[in-house]
Design goal:
Strand order of the largest sheet: 1-2-3-4-5-6
Largest sheet: 6 strands, mixed
Order of helices and strands: HHHEHEEHHHHHHHEHEHEHHH
Structural class: alpha/beta
Distance between the termini: 24 Å
Number of strands: 6
């Protein structure tokens, strides 16, 4: 492949990125080995935090052998149209959604948010084309409020690192790393990335950096990561350093408030826009299956009660990641989903360059239904785009015509598969 064209997949404008993709498709002769039993509906892009533009994200999914892919940015749908155009060029089935934090105070305390009680990460999946712009406009209020909190968190980071001669200015150091000017969101990861840039300038890729992290900041750095951080050829250096820094966010994290809608409010908005509201299951972390999570308790101890509350609130689906939980956790979750007729959605959270787009676990029989779920999402989105939200998978009309959820999934999955030209 032409290396210059590959680099242009992350060019500054969407038009340049799409142009580069079209050129690559024309030039490429080797096609990927497609994995029909694989899917990913939770790919972040530069419109929240990720090394991938929407075009590059679609292309990476394609080269990984996926036959479908889904965009999922925080508080933003600004990359959705570009992503779907790229997927169409590549012949991928595609779906778009948005991830938000929402207020959900039911007395559970810590739910699926590592840093804050009584709030949840949730998503709106399968946003129809005509809803992308109005939905994104609604999200703009929350992006603005989030940035007010981001500024205050930068001040706290400066308070801790100032004694080392390192400060963080939101507008100067953080804002330029984002796509906020184009409707993108700015997350805590942007703050940590900006801090990583400052540390890189100060220490370089040297043993002095390791000493600073372990002795001055009292952070744990594995031998493997030490190797990454002192490797002069490491293209992922800043992301690896960010990974170390995110182990300690308590000193600067400020609880989100005004930037969060109440869960029921967001569910109502999502449904009105034709999207499917989903709770993002995290699950207790003991020994991390993927090695990138610290041990922490989340929702497993009260999961049956939580599922009932989610159902009451109007959630239609549960999204989960087969490679990030144990088989025992997922077996319990799947049983509760089926007992409560909740749509199961798979999505491996992609936001750093070392993560794989493919999910080998989906080849296992116990997760094969998640492939149909993905195509059902794509079908839902296509049907709503063509006919309107009143024809969506959880609409009164669809439920009346096909009361059984699993028969309805098959029906919409068939519609989804028809969207991809063979």
């Amino acid at each position: 492949m032409n290396g210059d064209l590959f680099e242009k997949l992350n060019a500054s404008s969407a038009a340049e990125r799409i142009g580069a993709l079209k050129a690559i498709v024309r030039e490429e002769t080797d096609k990927p080995v497609f994995r029909e039993n694989d899917a990913n509906n939770h790919i972040h892009t530069i419109y929240s935090f990720s090394p991938y533009s929407p075009v590059k994200a679609a292309y990476m999914a394609y080269r990984s052998g996926l036959t479908s892919a889904g965009i999922m940015d925080h508080d933003s749908l600004s990359g959705a149209k570009e992503f779907k155009e790229a997927a169409k060029i590549l012949g991928l089935g595609s779906t778009c959604g948005v991830e938000v934090r929402a207020k959900f105070d039911r007395g559970f305390g810590r739910i699926n948010h590592p840093d804050q009680d009584n709030c949840i990460y949730m998503a709106a999946h399968g946003v129809p084309a005509q809803s992308i712009d109005p939905f994104n406009e609604y999200l703009g209020t929350f992006r603005a409020k989030r940035n007010e909190r981001n500024k205050r968190m930068c001040d706290l980071i400066s308070g801790k690192f100032g004694r080392f001669g390192i400060t963080l200015d939101f507008m100067k150091d953080v804002y330029p790393l984002s796509r906020a000017e184009e409707g993108g969101s700015i997350t805590e990861r942007h703050l940590l990335y900006a801090l990583a840039v400052k540390l890189s300038a100060r220490f370089g890729r040297t043993p002095a950096l390791i000493d600073f992290l372990t002795k001055d900041l009292n952070l744990t750095v594995s031998e493997k990561i030490k190797g990454y951080l002192t490797d002069g050829d490491n293209e992922n250096f800043l992301y690896d350093l960010l990974g170390v820094l995110k182990a300690d966010t308590a000193f600067f994290y400020i609880d989100a408030d005004e930037e969060m809608p109440v869960a029921e409010e967001f569910i109502g908005r999502a449904c009105a826009f034709g999207a499917i509201p989903a709770y993002a299951y995290l699950g207790d972390v003991g020994e991390s299956v993927t090695g990138d999570k610290k041990a922490q308790k989340f929702e497993d101890d009260y999961l049956p009660e939580l599922i009932k509350e989610l159902k009451k609130a109007g959630f239609k689906a549960i999204a989960y990641m087969p490679t990030r939980n144990t088989p025992e956790q997922l077996k319990t979750l799947q049983k509760l989903c089926r007992e409560n007729e909740l749509f199961e959605i798979s999505g491996e959270d992609i936001n750093s360059p070392r993560q794989k787009f493919a999910c080998a676990a989906l080849a296992k029989p116990e997760y094969s239904h998640l492939i149909d779920s993905t195509w059902a999402l794509i079908g839902h989105e296509a049907v709503c785009t063509e006919k309107g939200a009143e024809y969506g998978m959880f609409s009164e009309r669809a439920v009346k015509e096909t009361p059984n959820l699993y028969e309805r999934i098959q029906k919409f999955a068939a519609a989804g598969r028809q969207t991809v030209k063979k």
